Amino acid sequence: MVSETSLSSSKRSPATPKFCNSFTTRIFADVAGDITIVVDGESFLLHKFPLVTLSGKIRKMVAEAKGSNVSNLELLNFPGGHQTFELAMKFCYGMNFEITAFNVARLRCAAEYLEMTEEYREQNLISRAEIYLNEIVFQSLQKSVEVLSTCEMLPPNTVDEIEISSGCVEAIAMNACKEQLVSGLSKLDCDGESRELKEDCVAWWVEDLSVLRIDYFQGVICAMGRMGVRSDSIIASLMHYAQSSLKGIGKCQFWNPSRTNSSPTSVEKDQRIIVETLVSLMPTDKSSSIPLTFLFGMLKMAIMLGATTPCRLELERRIALRLEMVSLDDLLIPSLQSGDSLFDVDTVHRLLVNFLQRVEEEETEDYGYESDGLCSAGHGSLLKVGQLIDAYLAEIAPDPYLSLQKFVALIEILPDYARVIDDGLYRAVDIYLKAHSALTEQECKKLCKLIDCQKLSQEACNHAAQNDRLPLQMVVQVLYFEQLRLKNALSGSSGDGLLSQRISSGVPSAAMSPRDNYASLRRENRELKLEISRMRVRLSELEKEQIFMKQGMIEKGGNGRTFLTSLSKGIGRIAIFSGQGGGKRQKSGEHNV
Length: 593
Prior knowledge:
Pathway: Protein modification; protein ubiquitination
Largest sheet: 4 strands, mixed
InterPro entries: BTB/POZ_dom (IPR000210), NPH3/RPT2-like (IPR043454), NPH3_dom (IPR027356), SKP1/BTB/POZ_sf (IPR011333)
Distance between the termini: 84 Å
CATH superfamily of the domain at 35-137: Potassium Channel Kv1.1, Chain A
Number of strands: 4
CATH architecture of the domain at 35-137: 2-Layer Sandwich
Structural class: mainly alpha
Subcellular location: Endomembrane system
Family: Belongs to the NPH3 family.
Number of helices: 26
Main location: membrane
Strand content: under 5%
CATH topology of the domain at 35-137: Potassium Channel Kv1.1, Chain A
């Protein structure tokens, strides 16, 4: 067993060595040296006998130099530098010194360089370093991390050849598994305990890994995944590593246009490698849940540092899987393109594309007559995303650099059934029209056509009827549908005829396949239930209107009936001017109540 505090040679030196601080270091002050070895510009005056006895390399160099000047030798590219060489020489002279986690990797590489094997003496420096690694370092997660971090300053070829780094990586992963098992047995698995207890179970060692270089950290995380370390522990390690290694990136860099024209610095290149590596290490199992704030933070870093396209697409894919849980602030990603919009609209558009693909895949997987399309989780998520995008549109609408094409693309990408009412969309369009007063009449009409006037609430209709920024055609349509709504409210009609017509249109054709029939019925079912949701909103509004109208009629007495009659006739006259445009709008929205 090797002592952790000291290590001494089995042979005693013929004289007590003394060190001095001069340029030429003399191991023995009282015995004249017969060989000078230069390491990294530092000269050591030594004796041949103890060196050739333990070092195969020095023995060969002395043998090859016979007949010439053998009193001066130079060791090039010595691992660990002259300080490690001094420790190796102490071992040759039998002097006591301490082997620690800080110097054991350097000593092991130096011993390999000097060929200090068992061939020349038992318990030579290679053997002593190996015993310390196996019996002390590899038994401790913390010491394995310390040794692995010191390998960063050593020649990679030597470290890999003698398998110090791989041994430390496997030891870290194995000890992490042991800690996980002990923690699970003692605390009955952290997943079933409080959040504070769960954090205590994984936080004590994830901080240690943040000192590693990214390639060593990658090897440790991969080994942990192979050995079955919990995903939440791996995610915690990734998050802590990102926080400690990427904290130098400031938010002000997002808004600096000069960055896009300059080449990345060496620090930015290193940070880009870190981002790409961390993304590649994220767990792929569905049970793991990476915080959305961390995913968005990594996405912003990837965009700013110019990470590879696969890296950014992977982050976007992961975010799109839970887009319904995203907050508005998360979507407000600054744009780095000079002269472009203030926010990265293209990234949000890609998130929506991935999200809609996920919804479509879920509906395909749920194929079966017993499933319900509208009640599925996909449709509920779609409604939440619809509200989120409407809020996002309203937030970016004042941007004077936001093009109409990108604004319209974000509106059109969502299907009609993603919005129960269009109040949020109307608000966003109104803000855009106010901020972009230079739009032509045709562009205003193109934008306003995306709003379904039948899906506006009473308050939105009242605002639209008095909105000077809207095209006249849309104002007429709003008044026309308000007239229909008012007539239905007075006559007590609830639109049963329209519902019956749609139900009858959903009868499957005999020429269609069973799968096509089911898909058609499912779409009809989703549209009908969506109409029910809209009708509930309408019913709530009509009840409020009825209470208001009754109060007005009671206050005005008999004047109330005359007022309602004149109002109905006046709206009827205005509806005449809707002409063909109103008919087309009603036809395009025939699936709406």
